[in-house]
Design goal:
The chain is built from nine helices and no strands. By secondary structure, it is mainly α.
């Protein structure tokens, strides 16, 4: 079982491997869902390279290792923003791509996602960069509002307002009643 690394694991180059071991797959899956599996491996590796190089700037008083890594990954995804938007437009036309989760999870995901993935992907392209980042950090990364705020370097209230605006836009785009 992988233990959750502490701040000392981040700061110590000899122990940084624990950070990689604990979070690599999760970060790779997040990137893969946003940009596709073809780039996920490289960008996940780049995320940990950046984290290793910036480990002296990690401040445990600001939050945990996990949202810090998601913030780095999201910034790197930002450099690939056009590819992400193209991916969502393609998904809107063609449906979900194969993923690398377990077989049972794949079957369940494909059955439920196959119906709405086109509509949802198209709706995601209508969000601003900040709104899309917040939605996908919550949906794909499973981060809390506090963790999203830390990952993006914004206030908690900014996360809440972006998510609220995004939900309204997604509801409207998907033809759902806005509450």
């Amino acid at each position: 079982m992988i233990t959750v690394p502490d701040a000392a694991s981040v700061a110590d180059p000899e122990r940084f491997g624990a950070v990689f071991d604990a979070h690599y797959e999760e970060i790779r899956r997040y990137i893969g869902r946003r940009l596709g599996l073809d780039i996920a491996e490289d960008l996940a590796a780049e995320t940990f390279l950046v984290a290793f190089r910036r480990r002296h700037r990690f401040d445990p008083a600001r939050g945990g290792v996990r949202p810090w890594l998601y913030g780095i990954a999201t910034n790197l995804i930002g450099r690939h923003r056009r590819a992400e938007v193209r991916r969502y437009r393609a998904l809107a036309r063609t449906g979900p791509p194969p993923d690398d989760d377990g077989h049972d999870q794949r079957v369940a995901d494909r059955v439920t996602a196959g119906v709405t993935v086109g509509l949802l992907s198209g709706a995601l392209t209508g969000l601003s960069k900040g709104e899309r980042d917040v939605v996908l950090l919550v949906a794909y990364g499973g981060l809390t509002y506090d963790e999203v705020a830390q990952a993006l370097g914004v206030a908690y209230g900014t996360v809440a307002s972006r998510l609220s605006r995004a939900r309204n836009k997604l509801h409207t785009s998907l033809g759902m009643e806005v509450r």
